[in-house]
Automatic annotation (TrEMBL):
<dbReference type="Pfam" id="PF01494">
    <property type="entry name" value="FAD_binding_3"/>
</dbReference>
<feature type="domain" description="FAD-binding">
    <location>
        <begin position="2"/>
        <end position="328"/>
    </location>
</feature>
<keyword id="KW-0285">Flavoprotein</keyword>
<keyword id="KW-0560">Oxidoreductase</keyword>
<dbReference type="GO" id="GO:0071949">
    <property type="term" value="F:FAD binding"/>
</dbReference>
<dbReference type="InterPro" id="IPR002938">
    <property type="entry name" value="FAD-bd"/>
</dbReference>
<protein>
    <recommendedName>
        <fullName>FAD-binding domain-containing protein</fullName>
    </recommendedName>
</protein>
<comment type="similarity">
    <text>Belongs to the paxM FAD-dependent monooxygenase family.</text>
</comment>
<dbReference type="GO" id="GO:0004497">
    <property type="term" value="F:monooxygenase activity"/>
</dbReference>
<dbReference type="InterPro" id="IPR036188">
    <property type="entry name" value="FAD/NAD-bd_sf"/>
</dbReference>
<dbReference type="InterPro" id="IPR050493">
    <property type="entry name" value="FAD-dep_Monooxygenase_BioMet"/>
</dbReference>
<keyword id="KW-0503">Monooxygenase</keyword>
<keyword id="KW-0274">FAD</keyword>
Length: 412
């Protein structure tokens, strides 16, 4: 079976790795003309890493090497930085794997190298502009330079701005503002280490959250304190004439500092050293009842199908789970691709919805103060995503494939 994967990000490359593990021929179409990874920090939780470890020798070990080596994330009070609670990162004794948090660029490079090493063909400069899945012809895509690619099945991890989603819906699918935005920024460890007030942030690998009134800051250092990245989630105040989204919207450092005025002075001092930042408007998509084309041989996955809030901590890992279930179902039912992908929907849509709801609840709890208006409730600062860590998407698919397949055949 030949699988065409549209994208080239973490989800797409996870799928390429999963498909190669199952013996499929894989072609990945990447829009950019050369390898380019978006900045910022990305996390992987045990429900994703156990799958990657099953599919690809040494990948998870190499991910661990570039991840934050801190033992815990400290959940801190916004005003003075005192520790409210600590969340353990090394959960191998419970779930078999630790939580991995590191630079998106480092992870992207590892995924790309391993996908190619396993035999996936990655084509750069192939921006897909149209999708086709009709009649007896194989499903196909056409790029902006006129090249056509077809395969037995097309799997689209083309992100929150997905054109494949619009093809499935048969109409435009504009973004819906969530009401929240994020500032993303970076400060070198050398800069922070030179200031006694901020040096502690890069004294080795550290993970810290500051929880405030309708706002929280996540700051993380890794590679022995070489890099310090932060993300600040807050309500969107700006009234925009057109909804924008993406990692590359420029932000203003002075706006960041206005936002955290009166916060922990050590945090403010670190943020003041930012040279530039990005302003990322978080958008939703309406929940879909189907992720597949009418003919049934094209499917969307990851953020294209079910974007989640960054506070879920599950964006990348849910794309990996999608890849696991798509690959498993196609291996079980390679003749009737449409049936296989309908089983994927039956298995995945409910879990994706649960992860979305968890992320919304997590943000709401982190942004809530007690009646005094001074402090986040201590029983509301933990990471809710831990409830999802024991899950094995492949095992779940194996347990449910036969039943769902039979039910769908009976209904057809």
């Amino acid at each position: 079976m030949h699988v065409l994967v549209v994208g080239g990000g973490i989800g797409d490359l996870s799928a390429a790795i999963a498909f190669r593990h199952h013996g499929f021929e894989v072609t990945v179409l990447e829009a950019s003309s050369e390898f380019r990874s978006l900045g910022g920090v990305l996390g992987f939780t045990p429900n994703g890493t156990r799958l990657l470890d099953r599919w690809c020798l040494n990948l998870v070990q190499e991910m661990h090497e570039v991840a934050c080596q801190a033992d815990v994330f400290s959940m801190r009070h916004w005003e003075d930085g005192r520790v409210l609670a600590e969340e353990k990162l090394d959960l191998a004794d419970i779930y078999g794997y630790r939580v991995l948090v590191g630079a998106r660029a480092s992870y992207h490079r590892l995924f790309l190298d391993h996908a190619i090493g396993l035999g996936a063909k990655v084509i750069f400069g192939a921006r897909v502009v149209s999708f086709h899945d009709k009649g007896d012809a194989k499903p196909s895509v056409v790029t902006e330079n006129g090249d056509k690619y077809d395969a037995d099945v097309v799997v689209c991890f083309d992100g929150i701005k997905s054109l494949a989603r619009e093809y499935i819906l048969g109409c435009a699918a504009p973004p819906i503002p969530s009401g929240f935005s994020c500032y993303r920024g970076y400060v070198s460890g050398t800069t922070l280490a030179a200031d006694p007030e901020t040096a502690w942030l890069v004294d080795g690998d550290k993970g810290n959250f500051w929880l405030g009134d309708d706002c929280h800051v996540n700051g993380c250092s890794f590679l022995g304190g070489k890099d310090w990245y932060y993300i600040i989630t807050r309500p969107t105040i700006e009234v925009l004439s057109e909804v924008t989204e993406g990692y590359f919207a420029p932000g203003r450092v002075e706006d960041v500092l206005d936002l955290v005025e009166g916060w922990d002075p050590r945090l403010v001092a670190a943020l003041a050293k930012t040279e530039e930042c990005l302003d990322w408007q978080i958008c939703h998509r309406p929940r879909l009842s189907s992720w597949t084309s009418k003919r049934g041989r094209l499917i969307i996955a990851g953020d294209a199908a079910h974007p989640v809030s960054p506070t879920s901590g599950q964006g990348a890992t849910q794309a990996i789970e999608d890849a696991a279930v798509i690959a498993y179902c196609l291996r079980q039912e390679s003749i009737n691709v449409a049936l296989a992908l309908k089983v994927v929907e039956a298995i995945r849509i409910g879990r994706a919805a649960a992860v979305y709801e968890m992320g919304e609840q997590q943000r709401n709890e982190w942004h809530r103060k007690d009646a005094t208006g001074r402090e986040c409730a201590k029983d509301k600062v933990g990471m809710k995503s831990k409830d999802f860590f024991p899950f094995d998407a492949e095992q779940d698919a194996a347990e449910r494939f036969e039943r769902f397949g039979a039910e769908l055949k009976a209904d057809s």
